[in-house]
TrEMBL record:
<keyword id="KW-0698">rRNA processing</keyword>
<feature type="compositionally biased region" description="Polar residues">
    <location>
        <begin position="321"/>
        <end position="338"/>
    </location>
</feature>
<keyword id="KW-0269">Exonuclease</keyword>
<feature type="domain" description="RNB">
    <location>
        <begin position="472"/>
        <end position="803"/>
    </location>
</feature>
<dbReference type="InterPro" id="IPR050180">
    <property type="entry name" value="RNR_Ribonuclease"/>
</dbReference>
<dbReference type="InterPro" id="IPR029060">
    <property type="entry name" value="PIN-like_dom_sf"/>
</dbReference>
<feature type="domain" description="PIN">
    <location>
        <begin position="53"/>
        <end position="166"/>
    </location>
</feature>
<feature type="region of interest" description="Disordered">
    <location>
        <begin position="299"/>
        <end position="341"/>
    </location>
</feature>
<dbReference type="Pfam" id="PF17215">
    <property type="entry name" value="Rrp44_S1"/>
</dbReference>
<dbReference type="Pfam" id="PF17849">
    <property type="entry name" value="OB_Dis3"/>
</dbReference>
<keyword id="KW-0271">Exosome</keyword>
<keyword id="KW-0378">Hydrolase</keyword>
<dbReference type="InterPro" id="IPR041505">
    <property type="entry name" value="Dis3_CSD2"/>
</dbReference>
<keyword id="KW-0539">Nucleus</keyword>
<dbReference type="InterPro" id="IPR033771">
    <property type="entry name" value="Rrp44_CSD1"/>
</dbReference>
<keyword id="KW-0540">Nuclease</keyword>
<keyword id="KW-0694">RNA-binding</keyword>
Length: 938
C-alpha cells in the first residue's frame, strides 16, 4: 500500500521547502513480542518477554535517560523508528548508544518500524507541529501494541511530557513517567541514575527533593539567547571559539578566536560563566583596563579549590576586577596589556560528557537510604565540582565513580548532575587505568560476535591462490625484515634493500595488507572506523582490530608468509628516487628486529651477513634522505617521551626514563615517511576530490610568541619566517648545557598546531601543505593494523591501480569529512590517554620513591614556574608562593627577561631554562587526588 506524507523543512539557504514523500506500507512487520500469536516469528528472534511490561519510550526519555537505560534492570523496550530518527537528528552520540543496546543479544531492545506499518502509520495534519506529530505517532503505535497483544502482556508508554501523558490517558493508553516507573521497580539505587531536566511546566517532575539553598541569588550571568548571539557574532560584538582550560590553573582559560586573530584569555570562573573545557562559546571582550599581562597568569595552588564567586553583575560595566589567585591583590592595571581578555556570554555547543572522580569526603548522616546531596570532584582539575543527589552515599565514598552533568543554573555555584556507575576502589591501579580510558572516550569493550564473525578461520596461512594471483607479486625470496620497539606483536611494516647490477638500490616498504581481510561495510570495518586507532597505554594496548588480525593474520612476523601492500623504489646511491611502483605482494620476513638489535648489528663491524649489509645500506640512504628533507625545511622537533620498565607479574613500573632514539629508529621513520609521500602523490593524482590526506597547518606568529620570548630571554634570535628558517635557527640553538637544544625543540613542538586528516576535496592544494615535514602532499599508509586512516588510503591506492573498485563512501563528500573528523578526534584522544597513562604510572612509581633530581625551568608564572625533568621526562609546577607563605615576600615577574625576582633586597631570581634542584614526592593535599609534588631544593 502506498501512502504519502508531507514534511516542511528549512534549506541551507534559509528557505522553507515543502516535501511530499511516498511510503510503501506493509502489514507483515514483526512486533517483536514473544507472546504474539499473530506475527510470523519463523525467521525472527523474539526479544520481548511476556512476563514483564513492554515499555514504549518517547524521544525525551531516550535523549535524557540513556545512562538509566544502559542499566540491565531496564529491559523489554520497544524503540519506535520515528523516535530513533528524532534522536539521531538531535544527538548522534546518544543514538549510537541506543543502537548498541538494540544489537546487544543480552538486552531486550526491539526496533519497530512504526512509520512503515499500515496500522501504525500516521499522516501529518495541517498546522501540526513536529513535536505534536511525533507524540501522536508514539501514542498510535502504543495503542496498536495494546490491541495487537491483548491480555498477553502489559504495554506501558513512558513519557515525562505532561501533555503527551494526559492525551495518552484520555485515549485509554497506559502511561507513566520514568521517575514513577523506576520507583515501582523497588530498587532505590536506580533513582540515582535519573536525569532531572529543567523545571519546565511541560515536564512532569516526580517528588524531586530540592536540596539547594532556599535563598536563590544570581551567581552567574544569564546566557544570551542564540538569536542575540548570532546577531552579535555577525556584527563583531561577540567572538566564537573553543574554550580550553589551563591544566595547571582551572580558573584560567583560553579561547582561540579567528575573528580577532588571537587567543582571548578568560580569568576566573565568573568570567567563564558556567562554560566547560571544550565548549564552543560566545564571548565578549572586556575593557582594555581589565586585560591582564602574561605575568599575572599563575599556577593555581591545590588548596585553591574554589575561588570566591561573586554575585553576577548586571551589566558589562559592572564587572569586578579579577584578583590574583595567589596573593589576592588586584591586577596591576597600569601595565601594558599583552593579550585580550574576555568573558563568556553564551554557550553555542556544550561539551558535557561523563566524568570520573569521587565524592568529596563528608560525615555519614544518620540513617541510610535517604536522598543526600553530595559534591562530586573530578580527577580532572579543569572540571568544576558537580552536585549530585544519591541514596547510596555510604557505598560511594571510597569509590571512583562516573557522573554526568544535567544542567547548570545561573543561581547555582555548581552544575547539577547524576550518578552513573561505580568504576572501582580509589587508588586501585586497574580502576585508575579504567578512568584514563573513560575520560578519553576510548572504547575498550571486547569485540562483538558480529565483528569476530568477519575474521577468517584460524589457523590462517597464505594460500596457493594468493601466490598465483596476478595482482600479487611473489617477494618471498627477498631478504625482508622488520624493525620495531621491543616486544612488538602488531608488526605492520617491513623493509628490504637490494643492490642492483647498475649500482643503484631496490628499496621496498612492505605494509600489512589489512584490506584483504577488512572489507567495506562489514561489522569489522564499521567497528574499526569508529575506534579509529589503537591506543597504547603503559601496560597494555587497546586494539583497533581484533587480536587474531593484529598479532597473527596481518602481522608481518618473522619466518611466516604474509600478504602485503608494497611500495618499491629504484634509488641511486645518493638516495634519489629513479622510479616508483606499487603492488600487492606475498612476503616472508627473515627477521623481526628490535631497534636495539638493529642498531647493534649496524654498529658491529665484525658482522657482514646480507641482513646486516642491507641494514647499513638502508641507513646510509636514510641519512641522505633525512638531510635532504631538513635542507628543504623539515623540522626536527622533540617531545618528552617516557619509557617504563614494567613488572610482568604485578604490572607495576620498575624503572622510568626518557625514551632513547637511535639511528635505527630514524632509518625506519625515513622510509615510512617516503612511502607515505609516494602514496599521497599517487592517490591525489587519481582521486583529486576524495583522497584522505594529512596536513600540518603553518603556526601563526602569535602561536610562536612564547617560543620567541623564551629564546630572546636566553639570548637566542629565532627566525620563524618559514619552516626552513626555523629549522636552521633550531640547529644553531646550542649551549654548553647538553639539554639546552632539546628543551628549545620541545618548546617549539608545543607551539605547533596539530596535524590533521582531511578530504582533499574540502581544501585547495596550497592548504594541503605539511609544515613540519615541509611536504606539499602527505598521508598515512604505513600502519593499517593500528590506524583506520591507513585502511582508507589502502583502498584508494588499490583503486588507483585498478586492483579494486572504489567503495561507495568515496562518492559522499560529507561522509568522508565526517570520517576524517572522527579520525582526528580519536587520534587526539589516543594521545591524551597515553599521556594520562604515563602520569598514572609516574605516580605509582614515585609513590614510595621520594627523589631529588635536576630540572630545567620552561615557563615562568607569577607564583612559581613550570619545570621539565630531563631524566624522567616529567613536567610540573614548582611554587614559590603558597597560601602558607603569604606575606613572607613578594615576587615580581620580568616578562622581557623571562625571570621571577624576589623583592626582599637579596635579588634572588630564577630564569627560564635555568637548571634547578628539585625534590619529587607523591602527596595527597586533597582526599583522593594524589599528585607528584615538585619542590625547590635550596
Amino acid at each position: 500500500m502506498l501512502k504519502s506524507n508531507t514534511f516542511i523543512r528549512k534549506t541551507k539557504g534559509g528557505k522553507i521547502k515543502k516535501e511530499v514523500r511516498e511510503i510503501y506500507l506493509r502489514d507483515d512487520i514483526y512486533c517483536g513480542a514473544a507472546a504474539c500469536k499473530t506475527c510470523d516469528t519463523s525467521t525472527s528472534r523474539a526479544p520481548l518477554d511476556a512476563a514483564s511490561p513492554l515499555l514504549v519510550l518517547d524521544t525525551n526519555v531516550l535523549l535524557q535517560q540513556i545512562d538509566l537505560l544502559e542499566n540491565p534492570v531496564i529491559d523489554n523496550v520497544v524503540l519506535l523508528s520515528i523516535v530513533l530518527d528524532e534522536v539521531k537528528n538531535k544527538n548522534m552520540a546518544v543514538y549510537n548508544r541506543i543502537r548498541a543496546l538494540s544489537t546487544n543479544p543480552l538486552r531486550k531492545f526491539f526496533v519497530f518500524s512504526n512509520q512503515f506499518h499500515k496500522d501504525t502509520f500516521v499522516k501529518r495534519m495541517d498546522g501540526e507541529t513536529p513535536n505534536d506529530y511525533n507524540d501522536r505517532a508514539i501514542r498510535v503505535a502504543t495503542r496498536w501494541y495494546q490491541t495487537h497483544l491483548g491480555t498477553a502482556t502489559t504495554v506501558l508508554l513512558i513519557t515525562n511530557d505532561r501533555e503527551n501523558k494526559r492525551r495518552a490517558t484520555e485515549e485509554g493508553i497506559s502511561a507513566d513517567t520514568i521517575q514513577s516507573y523506576v520507583k515501582s521497580l523497588g530498587q532505590p539505587e536506580l533513582l540515582d541514575l535519573l536525569v532531572h531536566p529543567s523545571e519546565s511546566k511541560d515536564i512532569v517532575m516526580e517528588e524531586v527533593e530540592d536540596l539547594r539553598p532556599s535563598k536563590r541569588q544570581v551567581v552567574y550571568q544569564e546566557h544570551k539567547p542564540m538569536s542575540e548571539i548570532t546577531l552579535g557574532l555577525h556584527r563583531g560584538i561577540y567572538h566564537q571559539g573553543k574554550l580550553r582550560v589551563n591544566r595547571y590553573n582551572p580558573f584560567e582559560a583560553y579561547v582561540g578566536s579567528e575573528s580577532i586573530g588571537d587567543e582571548i584569555i578568560i580569568h576566573g570562573r565568573q568570567n567563564m560563566n558556567r562554560a566547560f573545557d571544550g565548549d564552543i562559546v560566545a564571548l565578549e571582550l572586556l575593557p582594555q583596563d581589565q586585560w591582564h599581562e602574561e605575568k599575572n597568569l599563575s599556577i593555581a595552588d591545590e588548596e585553591d579549590e574554589e575561588e570566591d564567586v561573586h554575585l553576577a553583575p548586571s551589566s558589562a560595566d559592572d564587572a569586578p576586577r579579577t584578583t590574583n589567585l595567589v596573593s589576592g591583590s588586584a591586577t596591576d592595571m597600569n601595565s601594558t596589556p599583552s593579550r585580550p581578555a574576555g568573558r563568556v556570554v553564551g554557550i553555542i555547543k556544550r561539551n558535557w560528557h561523563s566524568y570520573c572522580g569521587s565524592l568529596e569526603p563528608m560525615p555519614l548522616p544518620a540513617g541510610t537510604g535517604s536522598l543526600i546531596s553530595a559534591l562530586f570532584v573530578s580527577k580532572d582539575r579543569r572540571i568544576p565540582k558537580i552536585r549530585i543527589q544519591t541514596r547510596q552515599l555510604e557505598n560511594l565514598l571510597d569509590k571512583r565513580i562516573i557522573v554526568a552533568v544535567d544542567s547548570w543554573d545561573c543561581q547555582s555555584r555548581y552544575p547539577s548532575g547524576h550518578y552513573v556507575r561505580v568504576i572501582g576502589e580509589i587508588g586501585d591501579r586497574d580502576t585508575e587505568s579504567e578512568v584514563v580510558l573513560i575520560e578519553n572516550d576510548i572504547n575498550s569493550r571486547p569485540f562483538s560476535s558480529q565483528v569476530l564473525a568477519c575474521l577468517p578461520p584460524l589457523p590462517w596461512c597464505v594460500s596457493s591462490e594468493d601466490v598465483t594471483n596476478s595482482i600479487r607479486l611473489d617477494l618471498r625470496s627477498l631478504c625482508i625484515f622488520s624493525v620495531d620497539p621491543p616486544g612488538c606483536k602488531d608488526i605492520d611494516d617491513a623493509l628490504h634493500c637490494t643492490a642492483l647490477p647498475n649500482g643503484n638500490y631496490e628499496v621496498g616498504v612492505h605494509i600489512a595488507d589489512v584490506t584483504n581481510f577488512v572489507h567495506p561495510g562489514t561489522p569489522l570495518d564499521d567497528e574499526a572506523s569508529q575506534r579509529g586507532t589503537s591506543v597504547y597505554l603503559v601496560e597494555r594496548r587497546i586494539d583497533m582490530l581484533p587480536k587474531p588480525l593484529t598479532e597473527d593474520i596481518c602481522s608481518l612476523r618473522a619466518d611466516v608468509e604474509r600478504l602485503a601492500f608494497s611500495v618499491i623504489w629504484e634509488m641511486s646511491p645518493d638516495a634519489e628516487i629513479i622510479s616508483t611502483r606499487f603492488t600487492k605482494s606475498v612476503i616472508k620476513s627473515c627477521a623481526a628486529l628490535s631497534y636495539v638489535e638493529a642498531q647493534a648489528r649496524m654498529d658491529d663491524s665484525r658482522l657482514m651477513d646480507p641482513l646486516t649489509t642491507n641494514l647499513r645500506n638502508m641507513n646510509t640512504l636514510a641519512k641522505i634522505m633525512r638531510q635532504r628533507r631538513i635542507d628543504k625545511g623539515a623540522l626536527t622537533l622533540a617531545s618528552a617521551e617516557v619509557k617504563f620498565q614494567i613488572d610482568t607479574e604485578t604490572h607495576d613500573p620498575l624503572d622510568i626514563g626518557m625514551y632513547q632514539i637511535r639511528e635505527a629508529n630514524q632509518m625506519v621513520e625515513e622510509f615510512m615517511l617516503a612511502a607515505n609521500v609516494s602514496v599521497a602523490k599517487q592517490i591525489r593524482e587519481c582521486f583529486p576530490s576524495c583522497s584522505l590526506l594529512r596536513r600540518h597547518p603553518t603556526p601563526t606568529r602569535e602561536m610562536l610568541e612564547p617560543l620567541l620570548c623564551t629564546a630572546a630571554a636566553v639570548g637566542l634570535e629565532l627566525d620563524v619566517s618559514s619552516s626552513k628558517a626555523l629549522a636552521d635557527s633550531l640547529d644553531l640553538a646550542v649551549r654548553d648545557d647538553p639539554y639546552f637544544n632539546k628543551l628549545i625543540r620541545i618548546l617549539a613542538t608545543r607551539c605547533m598546531t596539530q596535524a590533521v586528516y582531511f578530504c582533499s576535496g574540502d581544501l585547495s592544494p596550497p592548504e594541503y601543505h605539511h609544515y613540519g615535514l615541509a611536504a606539499p602532499l602527505y598521508t598515512h599508509f604505513t600502519s593499517p593494523i593500528r590506524r583506520y586512516a591507513d585502511v582508507i588510503v589502502h583502498r584508494l591506492l588499490a583503486a588507483s591501480l585498478g586492483i579494486d573498485k572504489l567503495p561507495p563512501v568515496f562518492q559522499d563528500r560529507a561522509q568522508l569529512t565526517s570520517i576524517a573528523d572522527n579520525l582526528n578526534y580519536r587520534h587526539r584522544n589516543a594521545q591524551m590517554a597515553s599521556r594520562a597513562s604515563v602520569e598514572l604510572h609516574t605516580l605509582i612509581y614515585f609513590r614510595n620513591r621520594p627523589t631529588d633530581t635536576e630540572a630545567r625551568i620552561v615557563k615562568i608564572r607569577s607564583n612559581g614556574f613550570i619545570v621539565f625533568v630531563p631524566k624522567y621526562g616529567i613536567e610540573g609546577p614548582v611554587y614559590l608562593t603558597t597560601r602558607a607563605e603569604k606575606g613572607s615576600g613578594e615576587w615580581r615577574v620580568d616578562e622581557q627577561q623571562q625571570k621571577i625576582i624576589k623583592m626582599d633586597g637579596n635579588s634572588l631570581s630564577y630564569s627560564v631554562l635555568q637548571a634547578v634542584r628539585i625534590h619529587m614526592e607523591v602527596v595527597e593535599p586533597q582526599p583522593n587526588r594524589p599528585k607528584l609534588q615538585l619542590t625547590l631544593v635550596t
